[in-house]
Amino acid sequence: MSEIKAALAEQRIETPSWGYGNSGTRFRVFPQPGVPRDPWEKIDDAATVHRFTGVAPTVSLHIPWDAVDDYAALARHAEDRGVAIGAINANVFQDEAYKLGSVANPDPGVRRKAVDHLLDCVEIMDRTGSRDLKLWFADGLNYPGQDDLRARQDRLAEALAETYARLGEGQRLLLEYKLFEPAFYTTDVPDWGTAFAHCLDLGPRAQVVIDTGHHAPGTNIEFIVAFLLRAGRLGAFDFNSRFYADDDLMVGAADPFQLFRIMHEIVRADALTPAAGIAFMLDQCHNIEPKIPAVIRSVLNVQEATAKALLVDAAALAKAQQEGDVLGANAVLMDAYNTDVRPLLAELRADQGLDPDPVAAFHRCGYAARVAAERVGGEQAGWGA
Amino acid sequence: MSEIKAALAEQRIETPSWGYGNSGTRFRVFPQPGVPRDPWEKIDDAATVHRFTGVAPTVSLHIPWDAVDDYAALARHAEDRGVAIGAINANVFQDEAYKLGSVANPDPGVRRKAVDHLLDCVEIMDRTGSRDLKLWFADGLNYPGQDDLRARQDRLAEALAETYARLGEGQRLLLEYKLFEPAFYTTDVPDWGTAFAHCLDLGPRAQVVIDTGHHAPGTNIEFIVAFLLRAGRLGAFDFNSRFYADDDLMVGAADPFQLFRIMHEIVRADALTPAAGIAFMLDQCHNIEPKIPAVIRSVLNVQEATAKALLVDAAALAKAQQEGDVLGANAVLMDAYNTDVRPLLAELRADQGLDPDPVAAFHRCGYAARVAAERVGGEQAGWGA
Amino acid sequence: MSEIKAALAEQRIETPSWGYGNSGTRFRVFPQPGVPRDPWEKIDDAATVHRFTGVAPTVSLHIPWDAVDDYAALARHAEDRGVAIGAINANVFQDEAYKLGSVANPDPGVRRKAVDHLLDCVEIMDRTGSRDLKLWFADGLNYPGQDDLRARQDRLAEALAETYARLGEGQRLLLEYKLFEPAFYTTDVPDWGTAFAHCLDLGPRAQVVIDTGHHAPGTNIEFIVAFLLRAGRLGAFDFNSRFYADDDLMVGAADPFQLFRIMHEIVRADALTPAAGIAFMLDQCHNIEPKIPAVIRSVLNVQEATAKALLVDAAALAKAQQEGDVLGANAVLMDAYNTDVRPLLAELRADQGLDPDPVAAFHRCGYAARVAAERVGGEQAGWGA
Amino acid sequence: MSEIKAALAEQRIETPSWGYGNSGTRFRVFPQPGVPRDPWEKIDDAATVHRFTGVAPTVSLHIPWDAVDDYAALARHAEDRGVAIGAINANVFQDEAYKLGSVANPDPGVRRKAVDHLLDCVEIMDRTGSRDLKLWFADGLNYPGQDDLRARQDRLAEALAETYARLGEGQRLLLEYKLFEPAFYTTDVPDWGTAFAHCLDLGPRAQVVIDTGHHAPGTNIEFIVAFLLRAGRLGAFDFNSRFYADDDLMVGAADPFQLFRIMHEIVRADALTPAAGIAFMLDQCHNIEPKIPAVIRSVLNVQEATAKALLVDAAALAKAQQEGDVLGANAVLMDAYNTDVRPLLAELRADQGLDPDPVAAFHRCGYAARVAAERVGGEQAGWGA
């Protein structure tokens, strides 16, 4: 148990600045009280999550949503609050110019603009000390014939190469894929194979991001995890959960068993430690539930799945697998999954001087009421703001 | 052929006021030049579509997006332009109050507000002469346990009953279903079975709406069409097309063969004529393509699928089916589908004094340039405006 | 806890005779040692499952797979072994005549043959004391146009009506739906709505069967459970689990959280007790794993999900739901799900004089080795045998 | 038009020996009269398809289904009938040993047996003059934990490497992927990315096979086609069509527009000619329809989709794409798709001395009745025989 607790104590989960802002669907964004109005306040919220959970010490930024004049100051602000800047997420999908795509747009002027933004993001990484450039492209087509599938790959490859070349020592390019939305006929990086192939072409510091909500129905995500780990190309997760499309619900809310299976592959490959370089990020939209407790809940869900994965009896599992004992091997996995790990995690938190129940502690602390009172005037942050 | 042309000449397709306004995804709405700023201008656009196609004589309204002070004047404006007001679509999903649902909300005050809006919509039907109240509820849950599935059905049934009771002579309640979005764990009317069951409870003037984008992957839509026609409960279509979720692309753009199969069931049941009471509506979002030509294209797609369905050799089909001739029966259907019906439709249009190529004629007529120049100032219409 | 244990003690799960026989995919059936060679031996296996679990006192038969000369003797054999005959499953899909369908076949002679088989099954119910006639039709089409969708519904309705009329006092007709397979364009009862509509037409003793593997991707099964319970039309479950299609894996193996949510709706509607009339059946194929332990594992999985559902704090849940506390309500549900109920169930079994670990007890008892040795010669039972 | 006809005249479609044998679902195989009893008769049927269509000059074999003592004699038999032996398909899924996998099995003895079979298949290629070794592995897992995902990749890679090393001059290894079935939790080559990565590791003569029925719902297959063509790694197609899973219906029967889009990518990449090295194969199961006419129909469907793809106005398409004219570009594609190409193909056949209507000509020729009369006694070929 002490080894398991040690592994859990070392775990790092990154929360996204935009998860604290207002979000919604195409039908409606329902604003919430106390939502941050700028990146500084988002970081305050992220730091609050870390204060109660102890495992969320970094926060991802989204540019230009989180653009500030002085990034060094923003990094210091984070440090003052006990957290650090994580990945820099480029946004090349909300400018008027990107209606038909960014880096894969048929118009070279638009592509130039998009790549310049990517290069600016690397500049921000330099200033904030961020290691990871996370790239998700909304590029794609709505109608068959709308553009040339192959030419778009050529343009994408060119943009990625220029960006990759700009990376500094110790910086990485993380390429995300997504089956659909906002493009509805095809996207330009629809699946892990496409992201993987581009990363191979780029070089060793290009890695794939798995957003758990970005797959076709029935896709076995833990297979992809295992495959990319074997190939040395898994860079990060964007955790969330879904019943249908890219629903962006709290991770572990829709299929906690799947999350456990994913974490089992991570543990099995010894990829949980920060040294392994996998960034475990959240990417969620809390459309109807209060944001900070939802992020805390999500962090706990990842922690619980991890604890269960650490409980798997690896030797017994390997033995049953080797013997072709189908039911026995499955039972070893299920035994771990069926264990209630909440007492163990409460104990771990107590060891670390944290409240054993982070959600309850947050609710008691008065932070929500305070920011709701303070954060009036100005404009609440949201997608596009 | 003359019978087929006669059937095609009688066809009626309804276009939606909101299809002329700006739309987008949760990531971005890209505005377009010349987009209407109010319901009057939307009706002008709908009338333009009818002028070039000859088969789109009605336009659906969406309340409160299309709320005006004087509905009689709006109806007269439509009539002056050569069209009429079609279905009234209620909107109980964009008000702050509806965050956790409208007619199925646990809060009775919210439910009252929602039902009052539905009753107001019937009032607007009275004033505009509209026959159909079209109801789509965004109600649903994002998380398991969030609310009680069964209690929500009870509340929904109560709201529907009160609304149904308010209908006047010759008015109908059309109930739409949708698998997901904006709710991501469940919706309160997720499938045709749910809508059908509520319609049975309500009475004969309650009918089901099939939105072609609102199904789970793999759902056979023409089966539902055939089943509801047999049960006398098919009220309307919301036509659009999709590759993944509720993509709201132009009807016939993603799977033209499916559209043909749907129209085949309509023709087979003799349900094409206005007398049959099926409302053939479009419900689409032209996020990146110009809206009026996209609506024209959509109308033509429905027309072409209908023409092919009318070409099916019903006697040969029935004979092959009766004989268990699998390949022969399929071939009869495919023969019709593989026929190029564009010459026939061009001929029909020429007979009716229309340009044989409505898209080209629209582009030549200068309407797009004119409205782009005229419609400046004010706020362009869009979802939520 | 004593109430929960009482509820669990009363639970009844029915196992299928064909689950003990060899099964496989279209690619290959891998035979297993000790598989039964006739219905008598299948019943022996079912009785063994009941002996170790205490909650599987009935076994479904499949006709003609389980046809015998003397059904009364078969019922007595079951009784001698401590179990009883459950539902009678009709098979109208394996005879040469049914290539293009059974009750929906265009050929009236084939339909007559199929209906006669259904009537024979009612006869067998009379002789075995079975309450439930379970009907699943493989009827459907592989190609568009192959047959008339509507005419097939008419034929289906006629066959169901004749069968329903033959039911005796206290007998029920249970109608199962399935999205696809073995028909690949459409089936004649593809979804719950179709089954429900036919049941409504038939009368109060016609009820819907939910096979958990028979839905389109993304279908919310617990919604259907809740809806049918509200409508008084849920007759039975065919439990199994799936990742893709109708995979027929062990129930709870693919998505244990979904199984819990289903059982939560059952408990919430007070439909767990035998008095409620819901038949909780397994319908699985143990293609690669040993069959008896797999059935035991499946029974335990249902039991565990039920125990968790019984642990839900209904008052706290209702309060959070009423208050619109999204995270709070979800947390109440998850608290129950995250509880390790295995100790509780072990205790229950000890109370009942059973081994607390049925799988281990079965492995120790020597039954598998004994039947492997004894059941040589003859032909092992399987699908189609 | 003459260029289009020339391109069509050069087209080559390969039919599968097993498509002429009996097939079915796990529920039932319905035998048909006149079905071949051995590989020699299968080749006779394939030659018949070629005689009427003129574009099906090769036939794929499946080993051991098509094992014979003298492969050179079999190749001569084919040559005598006017066709040649195409790809050799290895079968490592039907032997008792492969219950838990073949090349990825945890048991090294089973792996040895499987690899030996693959090497034998290369031997058969040497003897028959076949160029392509087509590998599909049924390997996979039914239950989470059943085996180690990563170790299975290692074993798979090792088996592939040994097989690849055995290839002779001008021989290729074609690796097929499949999402699921017969394994239901994961397969070991579930998607194109996995096949692609293994091919990269193997070398330039390892290429990916796209079976059009082997994807998750919503997968954009033509994107994969375009991507693999760009990467120089598309080796072959297994054409068929599907509504749900791997339904193996006639190609073009479920979604003819998709088939057209696939062929559009082929034409756009100039990959239609035999010189480009893409093998266009059928892989279908004619469960309920007569097999030879179904294969003819399938060949015609591919031909018709190809003809439409050749009709696309490439210059107009490129111009509209470059200008960002979404509707215009889509219209160029749809114009080609909506054209009735059957007269053109009839003309092409007449030019080649073939009957313009191959299906009708086959029905008139008496072949079906003759083989039904002749092929009595012996055992009809089928999956597994």
Automatic annotation (TrEMBL), chains A, B, C, D:
Native organism is: Actinokineospora iranica
Xylose isomerase-like TIM barrel domain spans which residues? 64-246
Task: Please give the InterPro entries that the UniProt record associates with this protein.
Answer: L-rhamnose_isomerase, Rhamnose_iso-rel, Xyl_isomerase-like_sf, Xyl_isomerase-like_TIM-brl
Keyword Phosphoprotein recorded: no
Keywords (alphabetical) are: Isomerase, Manganese, Metal-binding
Keyword Isomerase among record annotations: yes
Pfam families to which the protein is assigned, alphabetical: AP_endonuc_2
**Single GO BP term:** L-lyxose metabolic process
In its UniProt record, a GO molecular function of this protein is: metal ion binding
Which parts of the chain are coiled coil?
none
* Name assigned to this protein: L-rhamnose isomerase / sugar isomerase
